Structure to design on (480 residues):
């Protein structure tokens, strides 16, 4: 894992050398060379990208390619100290791309380059975006350093900046620091916490299962004259629902209705039916779905996705088909999440025929499968012993522009490992690194289990040593 260090003198972010993963152990490969297949995908990525996007308008394609090239160019220049006369557009565009993809290392690297530019002027909006991203990426210390840098630049933090810092601390589990930040805001003139700040803090409490703090925060809001809004109620309703605290959840909904100025919306509907559906209380889920219909609150695609997953978990597959028919008849547009959910549910049930049917329907509707789609297919085929279909999936991916990730490789490695095809498993392990996907605990554990099952104790030990070595260098891999 690359580390960012703040130099107290220059207050710029620098990087240590990236860790390059090693290759598969020689005893495991037995001298064989990786076969063609997914290995080609990385080398032909630019060609595959163009083929995969050929249906897009030429102007849009040109913009995408220019953006990708600009980000790569900016990343290279960020490694050097000499670039301080760059044009604003490519740097700001590259920063936005990194932030939107939650690539916090790249984002801070580009931000360091941004701060070197002669035209650079500190802006609260930039710091707000970066702090929000760091919260999502569980980087509270980086958020703290970034906030310090902002202050050294003479920029006065806004309410949005403080709220983003609260989010960064709270989502990372540092609720004490988040609460201290809210208290600090009260001491700053014209920077009192508002309903967004408190709703953010409430969301963090729900995420961290600290429901004991919610009443205190709500009381503090009332004391300071901060009125609850729809987001406030939806946040705590969703939090209670995910924790299966149904009585308090319904009580919060009753308070929302009695308030008179905060009516439930589709987000409220989705939170409540998710809570009951996820816990297997299908009758209550359907009851509340009907109740919200009577309130005049219409479902959206997320509602239908929740219903599909809930029916699937309960083994009510006829209901899944009914929901899909309803979507089609009412002219809703199913999303990739919809199809992925249906494919996953039928796959887990071992209904390969229905799963394939919806996979074909998905493609016929012009929707591109992603790694989540392929993971569900691979898992289902592997469980059914249809390894040739897994190989077919790999060929499909080779001719597509899908961006492969670690969970996908874990799926295919597991499929061939369980089938005893260790050569193919090792080939995919090498392909994983060729595609810049870092192996994680699941990758190593899966392969070690496969080698042990075949009695290849030495090979398993070598892989375990590599796993420990990678963990020691990067801190990203867990060990037994």
């Amino acid at each position: 894992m690359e580390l960012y260090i703040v130099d107290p003198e220059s207050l710029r972010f620098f990087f240590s050398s990236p860790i390059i993963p090693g290759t598969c152990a020689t005893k495991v490969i037995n001298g064989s060379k990786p076969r063609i297949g997914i290995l080609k995908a990385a080398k032909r990525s630019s060609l595959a990208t163009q083929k995969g996007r050929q249906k897009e308008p030429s102007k849009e394609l040109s913009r995408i390619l220019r953006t990708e090239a600009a980000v790569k160019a900016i990343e290279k220049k960020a490694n050097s100290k000499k670039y301080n006369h760059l044009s604003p557009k490519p740097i700001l565009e590259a920063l936005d791309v990194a932030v939107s993809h939650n690539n916090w290392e790249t984002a801070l690297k580009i931000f360091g380059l941004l701060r070197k530019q002669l035209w650079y002027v500190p802006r609260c909006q930039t710091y707000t975006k970066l702090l929000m991203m760091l919260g999502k990426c569980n980087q509270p210390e980086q958020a703290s350093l970034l906030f310090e840098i902002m202050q050294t630049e003479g920029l006065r933090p806004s309410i949005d900046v403080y709220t983003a810092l609260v989010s960064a601390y709270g989502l990372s589990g540092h609720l004490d620091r988040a609460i201290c930040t809210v208290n600090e805001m009260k001491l700053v003139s014209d920077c009192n916490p508002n309903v967004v700040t408190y709703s953010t803090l409430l969301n963090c409490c729900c995420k961290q299962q600290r429901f004991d703090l919610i009443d205190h925060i709500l009381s503090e809001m009332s004391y300071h004259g901060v009125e609850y809004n729809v987001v406030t109620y939806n946040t705590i309703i969703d939090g209670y629902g995910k924790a299966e605290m149904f009585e308090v959840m319904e009580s919060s909904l009753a308070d929302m209705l009695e308030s008179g100025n905060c009516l439930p919306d589709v987000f409220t509907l989705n939170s409540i039916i998710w809570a009951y559906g996820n816990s297997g209380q299908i009758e209550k889920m359907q009851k509340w779905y009907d109740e919200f219909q009577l309130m005049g609150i219409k479902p959206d695609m997320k509602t239908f996705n929740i219903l599909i997953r809930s029916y699937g978990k309960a083994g009510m597959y006829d209901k899944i088909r009914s929901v899909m028919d309803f979507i089609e008849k009412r002219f809703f547009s199913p999303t990739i999440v919809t199809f992925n959910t249906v494919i996953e549910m039928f796959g887990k049930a071992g209904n390969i025929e229905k799963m394939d049917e919806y996979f074909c329907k998905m493609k016929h509707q012009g929707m591109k499968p992603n790694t989540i789609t392929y993971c569900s297919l691979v898992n289902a085929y592997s469980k059914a012993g249809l390894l040739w279909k897994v190989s077919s999936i790999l060929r499909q991916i080779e001719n597509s522009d899908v961006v492969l990730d670690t969970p996908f490789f874990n799926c295919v490695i597991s499929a061939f490992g369980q089938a005893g095809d260790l050569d193919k498993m090792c080939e995919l392990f090498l392909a994983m690194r060729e595609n810049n996907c870092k192996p994680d605990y699941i990758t190593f554990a899966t392969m070690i289990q496969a080698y042990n099952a075949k009695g290849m104790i030495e090979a398993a030990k070598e892989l375990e040593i590599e796993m420990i070595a990678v963990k020691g260098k990067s801190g990203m891999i867990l060990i037994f």
